[in-house]
Amino acid sequence: MNSKFESYFFEDDGYFPNHRFLPTLVYPNAIEHFHEVPDTLKENQWGNQWTGGIFDYHHYHSKTHEVLVVLEGAATVTLGGPHGNVLDIEKGDVLILPAGVSHKNQGSTDDFKVLGAYPFGEPFDLKTGDKHEYEQAIQEIPEAPFPSSDPLLGERGPLMELWHK
Is the overall model pTM greater than 0.85, yes or no? Predict the structure, then answer.
């Protein structure tokens, strides 16, 4: 895996809480051996795996963190809600989203596909920024189970250093 990474914090806008102290991590061009990814995630205790796309509306998960591994194609995503950052992602990129961080597919290639997973195989919920969801979400986000390892690099990955401070 490429050891380069980027980290981002996003502001709470009263609809999309994002995360108050855990950064979103992006590992550009991190994957070389795609056939190993499901097993690597499983070994590092990231389960409840699925493959598909990213929804084309702002959404987040308040009860669990999420990893998204780009398996095919490319997309433009907005992280952090309507006023967040727009990123171009492509095959081989990995995003680690703390609970509460909004994400949206702004547009993608026809072959765009990600593999998603959650620490300890936690089930995910779906919040869309409706004001009535907000109070419950800000109570749930700090309770999201903390991962025991970086989804790709295990105990020595950037997530473990940056999320444990």
Answer: yes
CB 70 within 8 A of CB 90: yes
How far is the CA of 123 from the CAs of 15, 33, 35, in angstroms? 22, 27, 24
Whole-angstrom distance, CA of residue 121 vs CA of residue 46: 6
What is the Cα–Cα distance from 89 to 74, expressed in whole angstroms?
6
What's the pLDDT at 164? 78
Using the CB atoms, write b or e for 84-104: b if 16+ within 10 Å: beebebebbbbbbbbbbbbbb
d(CA 23, CA 29): 19
d(CA 155, CA 59): 29
